[in-house]
Design brief:
Elements: H1 3-12, H2 29-36, E1 50-51, E2 54-57, H3 67-94, H4 101-118, H5 121-130, E3 134-136, H6 137-170, H7 175-178, H8 181-207, E4 211-212, E5 216-217, H9 224-230, H10 235-269, H11 274-306, H12 311-336, H13 338-351
Parallel strand pairs: 2-5
Antiparallel strand pairs: 1-4, 2-3
Length: 352
């Protein structure tokens, strides 16, 4: 089927072809053609649907008086986030004493944080500065895909880091053998593969429809649940998919973290000396703080989308999840870790 015939069929299904252009969608055209016509003859849509070439991110568009303040605030927070996480990566890479599994996973977590923030925040900053809300269809799918990959990497890497702490505290004599470089690399690759699969599943669900009930997204980036709520397909199917994927990629990592720390706490309580208990707990304190911050803000974003808050309220909840958490992670790890703090000070003194 050619793009010309594709447009003609869109008109037959009640979509306004003047609001949809195949040009610029060529990479997605075979998938669009595959998923757009899984409907039986005589099917009629009861809702007013539109085939769109772009969406509008409405997160902070109504706060016109606060635009200059928001621009300065988010730009400064973004720069602190990127510089802080890159500083951790450079400090670990420059200090041979930090070439251990724990810091290897921390570097990957910092890299995922930079990617997660960079896929969402720069677009928001530019939109605030230019007073624009538009994002192209392809740009929206690209932003959604990259944010899912980086965000899911965060969750899976936090689970891997919990497993690392479990091995270090519960099996200290076998730690080097269990957490060897090959296994550490394998765990990171598995995390990336799982994130890529999650992104692919979300894209397939969105690409099942090229027509949407409306084009306004009540957030400052293309969030998967927001896009699924705008599609013209059966909402029950979308809800089942969302809950199923949420159980797999949300419940399982949390379960792994809780089980790991259950074993860790049980082992620490068996340590006779108070100093030994404090040292063991201190090695887990930073990771526990980051886990609570990450999943606490993620739960806040989920609740805000569930109870259909206003665009401004939902956008602020997403800011905490996508910007505040990645910004605080470097401070949490550097302030509570003397080895990392010493490496950062050494790096800064050498560059000064």
């Amino acid at each position: 089927m050619s793009p010309k015939h594709f447009t003609e069929d869109l008109v037959a299904f009640g979509c306004d072809h003047r609001q949809f252009s195949v040009q610029g969608h060529e990479p997605f055209f075979p998938i669009l053609m595959l998923f757009s016509f899984q409907r039986f003859p005589g099917y009629t849509e009861t809702q007013n649907i539109t085939c769109v070439a772009e969406f509008h991110l409405m997160g902070f568009s109504e706060m016109t008086e606060l635009q200059p303040f928001l621009f300065g605030l988010f730009l400064s927070m973004y720069l602190v986030t990127v510089l802080g996480n890159l500083l951790i990566i450079l400090a670990v890479a420059s200090d041979s004493h930090l070439h251990t599994p724990m810091y290897f996973f921390l570097c990957n977590l910092s890299l995922a944080d930079v990617g997660f923030t960079s896929t969402t925040v720069p677009k928001m900053i530019v939109d605030i500065h230019t007073h624009s809300t538009a994002i192209s269809y392809v740009g929206c799918l690209t932003q959604m895909s990259l944010s899912i990959i980086c965000g899911c990497m965060d969750a899976l890497l936090l689970t891997v880091m919990a497993y690392d702490r479990f091995v270090a505290i519960c099996h200290p004599l076998h730690y080097q053998a269990i957490m060897n470089p090959g296994r550490c690399g394998f765990l990171v690759l598995v995390s990336f593969g799982g994130s890529l699969l999650y992104s692919l599943l979300q894209n397939l669900m969105v690409l099942r429809n090229s027509c949407f009930k409306k084009v306004e997204i009540s957030n400052f980036f293309c969030e998967p649940t927001q896009l699924l709520s705008l599609t013209s397909s059966d909402s029950f199917t979308n809800d089942v998919f969302t809950y199923l994927v949420g159980i797999i990629y949300g419940f399982l990592p949390i379960t792994g973290i809780l089980l790991s720390y259950y074993k860790v706490v049980s082992s620490i309580l068996r340590i006779p000396s108070a100093d030994g208990k404090y040292k063991a707990f201190s090695t887990c304190g930073s990771h526990v703080s980051v886990v609570c911050l990450f999943y606490g803000t993620g739960l806040g974003v989920y609740l805000s989308s569930t109870f259909s808050l206003s665009p401004g309220q939902g956008a602020w909840a997403s800011v905490v999840y996508t910007l505040v958490t990645p910004m605080l992670n470097p401070f949490i790890y550097s302030l509570r870790n003397r080895d990392l703090k010493r490496a950062i000070q050494k790096l800064l003194s050498n560059t000064a």
